[in-house]
Amino acid sequence: MAGYGQHKEDIIRRLRRIEGQVRGVQRMVDEDTYCIDVLTQVSAINAALQSCAVALLDEHLSCCVTEAIAQGGDQAKVKVGEASKAIARLIRT
Q1: Which of 11, 65, 66, 71 sits at a 20 to 30 Å CA gap from 27?
Q2: All structural domains of the chain with their residue ranges
């Protein structure tokens, strides 16, 4: 089971909202909306995606990583490594 299982509906709701924002930006471009207004909306979409990513990462840390550490062994190192790589990817974007 995914670490975000208990909050799956919240995550889906966020992603649907972001999807709507992207459709809105497509419409803005189609309607030749002023560039700065489009960029403002793109910035809002980026912030929403980052927020969603941080929520997913938080769920991963509090569920998957915590369980692996409690069990110990190599699995704990694997999960911590996965989380580290995910954090590095988020920082780069």
Answers
A1: 11
A2: 6-89
